[in-house]
Amino acid sequence: NLLRELMSYTEVDEFQEQLSIEMGLRTDCLACSYWMCSFAVNHHLSICSSPYNSCDCKSPKYAAGHPLCQIDKFRLVMNDMPGGLLVSVDPFMKALKRCWCLVEIAACTDINKTVRYMFPGALAEDLFDAPLESQLLTLADCEASMPADRERLLRE
User: Fold this and answer.
1) What is the per-residue burial (b if ≥16 Cβ within 10 Å, else e) of 20-38?
2) How far is CA 72 from the centre of its chain?
3) pTM score, two decimals?
4) Residue 141 burial (10 A CB sphere; 0-12, 13-18, 19+)
5) For 115-128, how does the pLDDT look when each residue is reduced to its tens digit (9 = 90+)?
6) Are 139 and 40 in contact (CB under 8 A)?
7) H-helix or E-strand spanning residue 94
């Protein structure tokens, strides 16, 4: 499967080149940040038509905790990932400032799953301007598209 093949690459340039070929992307598209849910979780069932997502697809909405909600089941999914988690980090490490990313990393760590990180060829220079300790965020400080998500994750 394509995802398994892409995850097997150890060099960022090799990964980006193969992804460009497979997805028919222009190579300049890879300079942008993307969020990809490899499990095809249907976010339309929870976040569309909200102040944080203007999609007007009219899908029925299910809140976290409802059996048909898909965005709150990641801990179950993590248990079934034999290879652990691969975190693809952008040059500004924005992913590590997002609530969901940190919670998924913590969930894998809690159940002794491997967490691997794929970094771009180079990190943004301004990341080195401040001490690392000052750049580390707690979950309460992280970004979330929906503040209710951050509050729920903090309670869990």
Assistant:
1) eeeeeeeeeebeeeeeeee
2) 14
3) 0.64
4) exposed
5) 888 877 777 777 77
6) no
7) none
